[in-house]
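Design request, tokens follow.
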């Protein structure tokens, strides 16, 4: 089976053609660099994504946050739900960890902006 993907590794967005057998990429073409091949192989066998969203303070002030690394694609909604249940205490600095283990993925969540109270 053949899958067509668009690489998300950089703004070039190379069109990838992936030959798939038994849920594994056996060949990748259309990539300009190794990142595209790695992306295609992961996307076929175990897709992952970084999650960017906001967490709230007790006063309802949104604080931009992002996972420190990627989480399995099928865990994204659980990760977002866990972040939404987490209350951030101001002040925060960029890179402050607001959650150690989002939805039991082993991936932390960090603030992506500094905010004072
Ligand atoms: S294959 Fe490389 S050059 Fe092409 S979109 Fe992906 S990262 Fe960018």
């Amino acid at each position: 089976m053949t899958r067509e993907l668009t690489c998300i590794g950089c703004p070039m967005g190379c069109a990838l053609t992936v030959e798939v057998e038994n849920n594994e990429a056996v060949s990748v073409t259309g990539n300009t660099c190794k990142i595209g091949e790695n992306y295609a192989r992961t996307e076929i066998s175990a897709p992952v994504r970084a999650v960017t969203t906001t967490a709230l303070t007790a006063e309802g002030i949104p604080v931009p946050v992002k996972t420190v690394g990627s989480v399995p694609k099928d865990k994204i909604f659980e990760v977002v739900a866990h972040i939404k249940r987490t209350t951030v205490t101001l002040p925060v600095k960029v890179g402050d960890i607001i959650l150690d283990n989002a939805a039991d993925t082993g991936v932390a969540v960090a603030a992506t902006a500094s905010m004072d109270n």
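Comment from the thread starter after seeing the answer: thanks! The pocket of iron/sulfur cluster is lined by residues 7, 9-10, 12-14, 31-33, 35-36 (CB under 6 Å).
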